[in-house]
Write a structure and sequence with these properties.
heterodimer; A: 273 residues; mainly alpha; two-stranded antiparallel ribbon; 2 strands; globular; B: 325 residues; alpha/beta; 4-stranded antiparallel β-sheet
Chain lengths: 273, 325
Amino acid sequence: MRGGITMKKILELYRVFLRLNVQKAMVYRGTYIAGVVGQWLGYGVTFASLYIMLSRFEVLAGWNRYEVLVLYGLSVLSYALSATVFFVPTQDLAMKVRTGELDQILSKPVHPFLYEIMQGFCPNYLSHISLAVAVLVFAFAKLHYKPDMVSMLYLALMLTGGLLIQSAVFIAGSSVGFFTVQDNPVMDMVYTLKGFVNYPITIFPRALQFFLTFMLPFAFINFYPAAMLLQKEIPAGYPAVLPYLPPVVGIFVFVLSIRLWNWGLSHYQGTGS
Amino acid sequence: MSFIEVEDLCKTYFIAQRSVGVWGSIKSLFRRTYREKKAVSDISFRVERGEAVGYIGPNGAGKSTTIKMLSGVLVPTSGTVHVGGVVPYKERKENAQHIGVVFGQRSQLYWDLPVSDTFELYEKLYDIPREVYMRNRDYYTELFQMEDFIDQPVRQLSLGQKMKANIAIALLHDPEVLYLDEPTIGLDVMSKKVLRESIRRINQEKGMTIILTTHDMDDIEAVCSRLILIDQGRKLFDGTLSRFKEEHHRDNMIKLEFKREMPEWKEQDGLSLAEAADSCWRIRVKREAAPRDAVITLLNLYNPDNIYMEEPKIEEIVESIFVGQ
C-alpha cells in the first residue's frame, strides 16, 4: 500500500510518543509514584491472601504452594508486560467512537491501532512487573529450582506466548466497542474465566480443563509452561506437545484478535456504528 | 478533472433501535431492528485548487459526515469521492498525507505538555522533511501569533489559543487541502478575528484549498468566496457568495441618521419604514427597486445628516431560507 511507513519510521515515531508519555507521567511525579505504590499494595494483598489460603492445603492436585505461586507469577508478569503496551489503547473504544476521537485518529496517516499503541504506552505497570518477578524469584528459591540456559530460554519463549494471549484478550475485548455503546458483560465473564488459571487446571472438572485449553486457551499463559518446568501432570489424555505450544497459540489468537479489530473498524467506517 | 470531485454521495447510518425494559433488551440481543438515517443524500460538487468553500447548514444537516468522507474516515454508502485523484477511504493513509483536518470540538494536543512538543510529534507522524518543518513552524507560529504560549503547557491555554495551535499543527506537513469543522465554535470575538484573518491568508498566500463548516456566517464572509448550503443531507445552494446574496436576498436596507429634529415619514413606492429609533430610520428597499434610485429619493426628500447602506447579512438570508421552508 502506498503511503505506508517503514519499520524504522514507526520505531522513530514510537520513541517520540514514548518520550511524551514519560514526560506526561513525570509532570505529576507524585501521582505516578503513589499509583505505582498503590498498585504494589493492591497486588501484594492478593498475593498474600493467595499464599495464606494455600498454606491451608499442603498439596493441590500434586502442586505445592510455591508451585502454585509460579502459576500466579507467570500470569501477573505476562499480564503486566502486555498491559504496558495494550491496556490504554484497548480501553474505552466505545467512548472514543462517541466523542469523535476515533474519527480524528482516522484522519492521520497511520493505522489507527498502531497510533493507539504508540499513544498509549503506560509506564504504570512497573509495579506489577516488579511484584511478579519478586514472586517468581521467591517461589523458585523455595523450590530450590536451579534454572539453566535452556530453561531460561524456554521461560522467555513461554512468557512471549502468554503475553500474546493476554494481549489478544485486550484487543478482542476492545473490538466490541465498535458495535456497542457500552461495555459488555461478556468481557467480565472472560476475565473471570481467566482467573481460574491462577490454580492448576487439573483441580477443575474435565469440561473446564477442555474449555481453558481449546476454547479460551488461558491455560497456555501459565499452566502448561509451569507444568513443563516443574514436571507436573497435564490433564490425562492430552497431547504431550501442549507445553511447547504457548508461542504458537499466542501468535494464532493474537492475529485473530487483530483481524477482529480490523473487521470492527471497517464495520464502523461503513455504518457509523 | 477538478481537485475535489463528489458525485451522488450518500451516507446512511443504521441506528440500532433500543427496546424498552429488560425483556426488550434481551430480545434485542438476538434480533435487532435498525432505523435508517440518511445523513448525506445525493450530494455532488466540485472544488478547484485554491478555492475557499463554506459548507453550511443547520445541526444534523450532514456537514461533518461529508467532511469525514472527504478525509477517508467514513466509507460512503454510495456515490464517489475523489480528492486529488485519490479515493480517500480506499487509500486513507495516502490521502491523510495530503490533507489537514481540524475537528473543532476535539483537540489533538497533549494536555500536560507544551504545544511545541506536539509539533515535534507531528514532524515524525507525517514524516516532514526537516527544512519544511522548520519553515512551517516559524511561519505558522507567527501567523497565529503563538510566540507567547507555544512553550506553555496546553492546560493553561485559552480555548482560542488551543484552536490556533490545532490548526497550525494540521498545516505543518503542507497539506493540499484543509478541512475545518467548526473552527470558531465557542471562541471570543478577538480570537475569531485572528483565526479568520489567518485562514484567509493561508488561502491567499499559500493557495491552499479550504473547506470550512460553521454556524457562524461571519466566518464565511471573512474567508470564503463560495458557499454550499445543505439541509437534511441535501444540497440547497452552490455558488459564489455574491450570487447567493443576489438570488436569495429580498430587500436592501438603508439607514438614515438625523442630528436635528426628524422629518415626517411619507409613504413612497418600493420603500417602507422598517424601524424608527431616536435619531435614525431603517428603511427597507424592495428588491425590485434599484438601491441607487432609492438613495437619491431619500436624500432629496429628507436631507439626512448621514446615510448608510446595509448589505444583507448571510446569516439573515440563511435564516429566511430555513424559516421560509
